[in-house]
Write a structure and sequence with these properties.
about 325 residues; alpha/beta; globular
């Protein structure tokens, strides 16, 4: 088939690389530290913020998938040079640039999130993510690169660990039938994007020229509260009912003193204190990927965590 380059080997990057190999492509994954070879996947260690080295690593590729992210508390400083570098590599090589984005750039919104909303974030992480897409979009409009952004809500599913709100802070306790504590209002409707669907959209959109030049939301199922999702997971695991409670402000404050991740979550607390609902109708009207049925999402997630933790049931 063709050479496809994935930057980043986090949950989304790893899932995308595996799917591309299943589709018969030659796959190259770029990370700062590299890793041992995998069947069908070449791993290269380099700093993707170095445009010269990144360009050399991308030569010959049809598509470049930007799935990397700096540490959460370093986005403001490290995101701009990373985006500039991938844009430079795309311009020099002609590879389609597929950016994995998120929903921070919209800022707080009343009603469902759609792609035509203005990027009006007021927090630093939201502003920097919006600016990265605007840079790529402007270069696309100038005819200098071919770019598209795919936006997802909070990741959920096999492979999602420390960064997921329904992952490492919830699943190990849930499998043992223990109470779980969550960020924000546990009863506020919230959209959860299934990780395998993210990979499916990234690989589909790269080959759809009519999709380029704009952003698209990953097909995402109906919004369910954290309490509802936790209940479904516990039922599948055979540990229901599980108590779900909001983290008290005092506990959050104490945790923020020792955890950069928790400290930085203050900026996007609005996503969990009120309804946060994604509309993915635009993508579904144009392309083929649909959200995986929720029952399948839940079963696969519980099975993955059970295997990871060595739990039985």
């Amino acid at each position: 088939m063709s050479l496809q380059v994935v930057i980043g080997n986090g949950p989304a990057g790893a899932a995308t690389a595996r799917l591309l190999t299943q589709q018969g492509h030659t796959v190259r994954v770029i990370t700062r530290t590299g890793r041992s070879p995998e069947p069908g996947i070449e791993h290269i260690a380099l700093d993707a913020a170095d445009p010269r080295r990144l360009t050399d690593a991308v030569r010959g590729a049809d598509a470049l998938y930007h799935c990397a992210a700096p540490p959460y508390h370093r986005w403001a400083a490290q995101w701009p040079p990373l985006v500039s570098s991938v844009c430079a590599a795309a311009e020099e090589t002609g590879a389609v640039l597929v950016l994995l984005g998120n929903l921070y750039g919209y800022g707080p919104v009343d009603g469902p999130l759609t792609e035509d909303l203005p990027l009006a974030a007021t927090g630093p992480k939201g502003r920097v993510r919006a600016a990265g897409w605007e840079q790529a979009r402007d270069l696309h409009r100038q005819g200098r690169i071919k770019a598209v952004e795919v936006r997802a809500s909070d990741f959920f599913g096999p492979g999602v660990t420390d960064g997921g709100h329904l992952a490492a802070r919830v699943m190990p306790r849930l499998l043992r039938g223990k109470p779980v504590s969550v960020l924000g209002d546990p009863d506020a409707p919230h959209s959860w994007t299934y990780l395998p669907d993210v990979a499916r959209v990234l690989t589909e959109i790269a080959g759809e020229e009519r999709a380029w030049g704009r952003a698209w939301h990953v097909p995402t199922g109906p919004a369910l509260s954290t309490r509802e999702m936790t209940g479904r997971l516990a039922t599948e695991a055979g540990t229901a009912p599980v108590t779900v409670r909001a983290l008290p402000p005092a506990v959050l404050g104490a945790l923020s003193l020792v955890s950069p991740l928790i400290r930085e979550l203050k900026e996007i607390r609005y996503q969990f204190d009120r309804p946060f609902v994604v509309d993915s109708c635009a993508y579904e009207a144009e392309f083929t990927v649909r959200a995986t049925p929720l029952d399948e999402q839940v079963k696969a997630t519980v099975d993955w965590w059970r295997e990871r933790s060595g739990a039985t049931g």
